[in-house]
Amino acid sequence: MSKNHTVKEYKLVVVGGGGVGKSALTIQFIQSHFVDEYDPTIEDSYRKQVAIDDEVALLDILDTAGQEEYSAMREQYMRTGEGFLLVYSVTERESFNELSTFYQQILRVKDTDSVPILLVGNKSDLAQERAVSFEEGEKLAKQFNCEFLETSAKQGINVDQAFHDLVRTIRAKNESIDGVASSADATTQNRQNSVAGAQAVDTTTTSQPANQKAQTTQGTSGAARKQQSSQGAPAKESGGCCVIA
């Protein structure tokens, strides 16, 4: 890797209710290790460098508290986040229902309707305890206008893909913004070129009558000189004879 090459950093925030497996997902991704016991998180930050689609990325992942009493603190994290994993447990209907609250909070804090988000239904390995169907997850993802995955932090199913897909979503948004900016710059440049061209044409058109006027003046002066020359010439005497009576 070149010394001048800068690795792009992505700030990801993991959001969801308490006990849905946010920390288990994050630690499985960072350390390839499953944490079985539940220890409520207030704030944990992790960093990992990975290659996604042959492009190196440094992921700064913030695992947030799901409890309502930490809502104000969570908003602070949301302001700096570039992308969000919205996590619920497929075994808990309530964790699924409260995602709309988290989603609206993100849109309000970011003050935009276009935020990179990935909806994650965790604990897919607990099939016998399932309370939320896969189809319901897909439907909610369509409402949020985002991608959807079911994961198992315990078995490592779709864990890497969840974080990688979120980075891909962020990249796609950034490329879209860059494309719009480039198009706007090109439009501005074309407009400036058109104005400059119009001014050049106007200058040429304005100077043309002056040339014609000069030519007309010269023509008039020539005619005047010719007339003066004609008037100044001596008149010819009339010829004739006299009659003698």
From TrEMBL:
Residues 184-232 have a biased composition (Polar residues). It comes from Cyberlindnera fabianii (Yeast). This is Ras-like protein 1. It is a lipid-anchor. GO terms for biological process: protein localization to bud neck; signal transduction. Belongs to the small GTPase superfamily. Ras family. Gene3D superfamilies: P-loop containing nucleotide triphosphate hydrolases (3.40.50.300). PROSITE patterns: RAB, RAS, RHO. The keyword Aminoacyl-tRNA synthetase does not apply. Residues 181-245 are annotated as: Disordered. InterPro entries: P-loop_NTPase, Small_GTP-bd, Small_GTPase, Small_GTPase_Ras-type. The S.cerevisiae Ras proteins modulate the activity of the adenylate cyclase catalytic subunit and therefore affect the biosynthesis of cyclic-AMP. GO terms for cellular component: plasma membrane.
